[in-house]
Protein: Trophoblast glycoprotein
Amino acid sequence: MPGGCARGPAAAAAAGDRRLRLARLLLVLLGWVSSSTGTSSSSPSSSSTSSSSPSSSVSAQPPPPPPPPPPGHCPAPCECSEAARTVKCVNKNLTEVPEDLPRYVRTLFFTGNQLAILPSGAFASRPPLAELATLNLSGSCLQEVSAGAFEHLPSLRQLDLSHNPLADLSPVAFSGGGGGSNASSLGRSPLSELFLNDILPPRDSQLRNRSFVGMVAAALQSGGALGNLLRLELSGNNFIYLPRDMFSGLPKLKHLDLHNNSLVGLGNLALGNLTHLETLHLGNNAFKALYNASLVQLQSLPNLRVNLDNNPWLCDCNLVDMVAWLKETNVVEGKASLSCFFPEKMRNRPLVKLNSSDLDCDPLPLDPLQTSYVFLGIVLALIGAIFLLVLYLNRKGIKKWLYNIRDACRDHMEGYHYRYEINADPRLTNLSSNSDV
Structure:
């Protein structure tokens, strides 16, 4: 027993040593785990520091340029609809076309602004507006359209420049539409519809004498640039005449609108080359009659329909050929509604119901001013006749009076001659001086 009691404390001491060793082992393991996690956490910090050093070196260089706007970007003053492919910049008082128009735009409304000048390449954005087909610039105070103003618009089909005070329209304003740099070398424009209605008089008084119809004619005839044009509207421009062969460069033209002008005749306007012309609107002008040369041109176009409403037709003998043509042709739309405007006695009579006997050229009455001139001439003639009669009746007294005047002039001249002879002869001069003494 005592030996067993003596072994008991030794065994307890050995067990305590084992626990102590286990505790130390656990502490060692915990220290190793903590050290491994510390190194792993320190490695990202080192990588971050290494990555921060290049950025500090880059910050010394200038910042890179901003990236281009995304394809769907919309300029601040405008309203955009990507679903409808439409951009509206209406009544924003813009002085130039925004450079950051979205690439998807097909229809651009740019009305009610303050453009003044449309320079060359006004729509030459990067990337190009390859899908823009309809461009409306009406009512934007546009005074000048430069050469190649519509470059880089390969899909442009419809252009509206109406209600602008155009004073300077370049002859090559509509040339091209591709990506070339020289406007004169761009060739044919893709335009099929052009609207130049109600062009306002220029604000600058020095530019008002420039002929707008001449500028339009030059642009239409410029190297066949508008050879693809199908519709042309020139209404409300107070045109009195149209230059010769004005539309010779538009072989594909189908619709021509010239209503609400002041045209008095077609003159030498060549319509024979417009073989595809389908509609010609000549209403609300100042036509009084259409003569044979114009009638032949209109009749030569096979598919043509003409509108001649609201013209002041003068129903006299000069209208005989036109009345006969109206009764036979089907070219004129609503020909039954055409009626006389002059003279007063025939006003509102339909042209197609007139006979040749109704179209007599009566002698025109004398103008009141002409009558007064005739009366004045008669009065002056009577006064002259009376004066001559008085002279004839007093011819003897007048003859005696003329003789008396002649004798008086002769005596006076003889006195001058006598004085001259005395002054010229020295002897007579001394004699006269001695006698004076």
